[in-house]
Amino acid sequence: MFVTVNDWPALSNLLGQTNMGYNACTHCFEDLDSIFLKTCRKVVYISHCQFLPVDHLVRKKGKHFKGKADHRAKPHNQTEDDILEMVKDMKVVFGKRQSSKPVPKDTQGHTPMWKKKSIFWELPYWHDLEVRHTIDVMHLTKNLYVNLLRFMGVYGKRKDSLEVRQDLQEMKEQGNLHPKKIDDGRQYLSPPSYTQSKEEKESMFECLNSINVSSRFSSNIKRIINVQEKKFLNLKFHDCHVLMT
Fold first, then answer.
1. What is the pLDDT of residue 5?
2. Strands 133-135, 4-6: parallel, antiparallel or unpaired by DSSP?
3. What is the DSSP string of 50-115?
4. 8 Å CB contact between 112 and 104
5. Which of the residues 116, 121, 129, 149 has an alpha carbon 20 to 30 A from that of 70?
6. How far is Cα 128 from Cα 134, in angstroms, rounded to an integer?
7. What is d(CA 21, CA 32) in angstroms, rounded to the nearest whole number?
8. What is the mean pLDDT of the chain?
């Protein structure tokens, strides 16, 4: 065996690394920049500008990212020796028996980066593989597209909510998106730049409703959209792949 292909939860089980909390990235490791949102009660990951090219214009647009430009280099790739050094002394026994040994939390009380030493390290050649685990394109494509549609407000529950705006206000970021109180005491949420207008939604769904594709190329597009409500219905992976294309 030279590589595993799996979704994100399975990657955590096979790799032995946690896939949630403050240390969830399999690339950044301890260099991951994460914060806890008090209102939404979830951990989010920020400072992705460091992965852009050094001379990229977005790095200089500090007003969109904590009010300052980001010139940091991306985290360096951990070698096989580095990863083995992290997990070689781990002795975790799962279960509810008296002999079980749970994973201890770190000094800040957070879930640690590693929860076990993967059994794959017992393979004599595993140490020499440069790529041992990968994410399959099916889950990656669908997750990306579904989240994009949720940001646009045309599929499922919107990502933009009052709780999100309150966290932005607490972080003192994006002042134009902070909730504003109106006369009757309710809070008004100004529409963000990525929100589609009524005319733009009508144009998009009219276009999708008029598409004819070859037999077996994809699902019938008309069956996965609701033109009246301007919403997408239950999307499958192949639908997401075709629509992204």
1. 92
2. parallel
3. GGS-TT-GGGG-GGGTTTS---PPPPPPPPHHHHHHHHTT---B-SSSTT-BPPPP-TTSPPPSBS
4. yes
5. 149
6. 16
7. 11
8. 82
The CA angle 44-139-195, to the nearest 5 degrees, is: 55
Phi, psi of 139 (to 5 degrees): -70, -35
List, in order, residues 6 or more apart from 26 with CB less than 8 Å away: 11, 15, 17, 133
CA 217-221-223 angle, to 5 degrees, is 125
Q: 96-111 burial by CB neighbour count: b if 16+ within 10 A, else e?
A: eeeeeeeeeeeeeeee
Q: Please give the helix or strand (H or E) that residue 149 lies within, else none.
A: helix 137-152
d(CA 106, CA 104): 7
What are the domain boundaries of the chain? 4-135
CB atoms within 10 A of CB 55: 7
Residues whose CB is less than 8 angstroms from the CB of residue 14 and which lie 6 or more positions away in sequence, other chains included: 4, 6, 118, 120, 133
Quote the pTM value: 0.73
Helical (H) or strand (E) element with 140: helix 137-152
